[in-house]
Amino acid sequence: MKDIDDSIQINLFDAEPGMALYEHKFNLQKITEQLLKFGLTPNQAKIYTYLGKYGPKTAAEVFKALQLPRTETYFILNLMQGRGIVTAECSLPTKYSALPLEQTLSTLVNTEKEKLNTLTQQKRDMVQLWDKIPSFVIETNDTKSEKLQMVQGSELIHIKIKDMIKNAREEIVIFCSEKDLSRFYHADITNMLSDSLLDFKIIISPAQRFPTFLKGMDKKAIKVMANSDSENQCFVIKDNDESLVFLRNATHPSHNPFAVWADSKSLVESMHKLFEYSWENAEVCH
Predict the structure, then answer these.
(1) Going from the N-terminus, what domains does the chain have, and what CATH number goes with each?
(2) How many DSSP H helices and E strands does the chain contain?
(3) Phi first, then psi: what are they for 97, rounded to 5°?
(4) I need a surface site. Which of 9, 15, 85, 87 has the fewest CB within 10 A?
(5) What DSSP string runs through 7-69?
(6) What is the pLDDT of residues 123-133, one digit of tens each?
(7) Which helix (H) or strand (E) holds 245?
């Protein structure tokens, strides 16, 4: 079978709306975006999808078709070969091929698992080593101060909320939009609440009905505020001693959430009073 013409190869990656190949280009872009979540860089993902759809190619064919720097292309091909997702044929010039997508994803996932296992062990070793070193700071009522932490990005924010749930002794309350709650659901935060022995309350604002994705959760613990313009408000309170307040929540146009965590007593009490007032005026889910 003849290789697909170079002009067609370029058109697939550079196709404009209205062209027959644009739908395929759009799908490749979605795959490329997903590959970034598995640890590939944009150019690595682009080279992988190119090799995967056009078959074995030399490095020269790759950087010409994708209009990438020559040196960077060689570097990426060798790097991806080392990661086990690209193979090289024993030929002159060398031709590179991409492994099947399912095999590639399994390889990338297993690599991340190995990294996680290694970091977990290193964490134990570091904690043991740290505990062996005596502490020379004694915290008293005079030296204890309130703390504040900036948290940016969904992943770090979700980790912070999970830590609050894990360390809670009595109660977690959440005020959020339905879009925020959907993200919490997909991050397993709502499952953590359901599986815990904690008392929890959730206010969804604005909303009119119980979200279908929360099937199985106690409806008595969830209320909605239908007539509300507070879609941009979201906060979490733990045991009335910690709060996480979103300055940019899931509804923000930037799609880059930003929150402030604090253990300030005055701030936490104020936010908790706001939640209790809202709870009294919210409606039970049906």
Answers:
(1) 6-103 (1.10.10.10), 148-284 (3.30.870.10)
(2) 10, 11
(3) -130, 150
(4) 87
(5) HHHHHHHHPPTTSTTHHHHHHHHHHHHHHHTTT--HHHHHHHHHHHHH-SEEHHHHHHHHT--
(6) 999 999 988 88
(7) strand 242-248
